[in-house]
TrEMBL record:
Lineage, top ranks: Bacteria, Bacillati, Actinomycetota, Actinomycetes, Micrococcales
One Pfam family recorded for the sequence: ABC_tran
Bilayer-crossing regions: none
Identification of the protein by name: ABC transporter related protein
Domain ABC transporter: 26-245
Gene Ontology MF, one: ATP binding
Keywords carried by this UniProt record: ATP-binding, Nucleotide-binding, Transport
Cellular component GO terms held in the UniProt record: membrane
CDD domains: ABC_KpsT_Wzt
UniProt record similarity statement: Belongs to the ABC transporter superfamily.
InterPro entries: AAA+_ATPase, ABC_transporter-like_ATP-bd, ABC_transpr_TagH-like, Bact_Polysacc_Export_ATP-bd, P-loop_NTPase
Length: 245
């Protein structure tokens, strides 16, 4: 039996919808005891699945279906309002470019900060430092504060630290959105290498051809609910069918 590395059980995540109301409307709401506006909606609704070690999984669905929220719950950046998320081993990845980076620190300092957040010791980071910088190809700017980085430079450094943190579970949200083509190719080669080493991958991308190539399994979401779980090619076909309707 393969080891379960991600266990999502009955997960619900709510967000508050904000409305702009006039003073009169606010007064009426208060007088009619409706209280201050606090409409919530379920970005994720009772989602459950397990992912075993070595699986490559695409989270699929249209805009707003809850894919990124689910990835953030798996990474621990967000906490669920209901249900549980359990992970085993080191979880790293690229969830939000720039998250885990401090704008006033240099690239070099941020490698140490980000590496520590990802669970690396100072010695491990120091040992891999040259490799991290070489992969990111931003040597020239490594002593510049990252607030002056372009989004592509951010991505390069963040991806490089994450991939060198030796993660058992690697999460990627729209990896390729801001990287240029040569860097995208390099990232994909790295992801393929992680895959062949038997690491677990969970990927969010609207590039359906790309995810069907990388991932074996697909989890399909619609408006926060899980509506399918099967082979990535089947789930991509279902998503494309929905699109046609
Ligand atoms: N921090 C937040 N506060 C309020 N609403 C949020 C927040 N984060 C996400 N949402 C809402 O939750 C829903 C799901 O968002 P999510 O980003 O998970 O979708 P997604 O499937 O990744 O979409 P996309 O394909 O557009 O990236 C959306 O309606 C979004 O507006």
């Amino acid at each position: 039996m393969p080891t379960t590395v991600i266990e999502v059980t009955g997960v619900t995540k709510q967000f508050t919808l904000r409305h702009q109301r006039s003073l009169k409307e606010i007064a009426v709401r208060l007088l009619t005891r409706k209280g201050v506006d606090k409409d919530t909606f379920n970005a994720l609704d009772e989602v459950s699945f397990q992912i075993a070690e070595g699986e490559t999984v695409a989270l699929l669905g249209f805009n707003g279906s809850g894919k990124s929220t689910l990835l953030k719950l798996i990474s621990g950046v967000l906490q669920p309002d209901g249900g549980t998320v359990r992970t085993r081993g080191r979880v790293a990845g690229l969830i939000e470019v720039g998250a885990g980076f401090h704008p006033d620190l240099t690239g070099r300092e941020n490698v140490f900060l980000n590496g520590a957040i990802l669970g690396m010791t100072e010695a491990q980071i120091a040992e891999k430092f040259d490799e991290i910088i070489a992969f990111s190809e931003i040597e020239k700017f490594i002593d510049t504060e990252v607030k002056f980085y372009s989004s592509g430079m951010f991505l390069r450094l963040a991806f490089s630290v994450a991939v060198h943190s030796d993660p058992e579970v690697f999460l990627v949200d729209e990896i390729l959105a801001v990287g240029d083509e040569p860097f995208q190719r390099k990232c994909l080669e790295r992801i393929d290498a992680l895959k062949s080493e038997g690491r677990t991958l969970v990927i969010v991308s609207h590039d359906l051809d790309l995810v069907s190539r990388i991932c074996e399994r697909g989890i399909l979401l619609r408006k926060g609910r899980m509506i399918g779980d099967g082979s990535a090619t089947d789930m991509v076909a279902r998503l494309r069918d929905e699109n046609d309707q």
